[in-house]
Design goal:
This protein is of the alpha/beta class. The protein has a single domain, classed as P-loop containing nucleotide triphosphate hydrolases (Rossmann fold, 3-Layer(aba) Sandwich). It is built from eight helices and eleven strands. The strands form three sheets. The protein has a seven-stranded mixed beta sheet, with helices on both faces. It has a two-stranded antiparallel ribbon with strand order 1-2. Strand 4, helix 4 and strand 5 form a beta-alpha-beta unit. Helix 5 runs parallel beside helix 7. The longest helix is centred in the C-terminal third of the chain and has 18 residues. The protein is globular and about 65 Å long. The mean pLDDT is 88.
Length: 249
């Protein structure tokens, strides 16, 4: 097959590349970039991630019980991404739980200033649309979605007493979210961190199950199950001994 014909085919295919994307959507195999790793806050975690850090432009999930360190992990991960880009790009926190703690974020080293965008949407659909806009802005290097389990749908917010709520909770909305975000995150090199809770295993097998449906799990490049450590752990934060979560992956 003539090389010129292949080049023309690739050129035609790349006309479908979204405007502003950092990479074309059609490439020869020998031109495909290896997954870039953003150095993370601990060498042990970098080793566990296999690629040496947070995979750039991918979806990553932190899930576990309450007080297992999910939010702290997400804040530390945002700091990693911001530092990696040397402040040339901003980071964003989509706070569906409306509980973002700027003081704790600053103690963990994340700058709570003009380099951070905090979004507190009223529902998951609005949050998804805002997340897409942030990704396409080309000004963001990383986003936290906090959280999948707390992402109330617009339907449930409008009718709190409605007895005929949709089956599956927020799973259809979260399916739309990850199916939309995953390709855009890759094309615009935006690393996305999702927080999620555990839900009851109704079959009684005591398996670690998460809200949001199977589509969320399938879209993730990395899923980290965080569990509270059995012992209290203290570390120096701003020169003071502070009790911090000691998670067990």
């Amino acid at each position: 097959m003539a090389r010129d014909a292949i080049d023309k085919l690739l050129e035609d295919l790349n006309k479908f590349t979204p405007e502003g994307a950092s990479k074309p959507i059609a490439l020869r195999g020998n031109n495909i970039e290896r997954i870039n790793a953003i150095p993370c806050f601990t060498p042990a975690l970098a080793y566990l991630l296999a690629v040496g850090g947070w995979p750039e432009g991918k979806l990553i999930e932190f899930f576990g019980k309450e007080h297992s360190g999910k939010s702290s992990f997400a804040l530390l991960a945002l700091k990693d991404c911001y530092d990696y880009y040397k402040g040339e790009k901003m980071v964003a926190y989509i706070d569906l739980e409306h509980r973002f703690n700027p003081e704790w974020a600053e103690k963990l080293g994340l700058k709570v200033d003009e380099s951070l965008i905090v979004v507190q949407p009223p529902d998951a659909e609005t949050g998804t649309d805002m997340m897409v806009r942030l990704i396409k802005s080309k000004m963001i290097c990383a986003i936290v979605w906090d959280s999948t389990g707390a992402a109330a749908t617009k339907h449930s917010m409008n009718e709190l007493t409605d007895k005929n709520d949709k089956m599956g909770g927020n799973a259809p909305v979260m399916k739309r979210n990850v199916q939309t975000v995953a390709p855009l995150a890759n094309l615009y090199n935006v690393t996305c961190f999702y927080l999620n809770q555990l839900r009851q295993d109704m079959d009684g097998y005591n398996r670690p199950m998460t809200p949001g449906g199977n589509a969320v799990k399938h879209a993730m490049s990395v899923r980290l199950y965080l569990r509270p450590g059995s012992e209290k752990y203290f570390d120096k934060v701003d020169g003071e001994d502070t009790e911090v979560v000691s998670p067990s992956l």
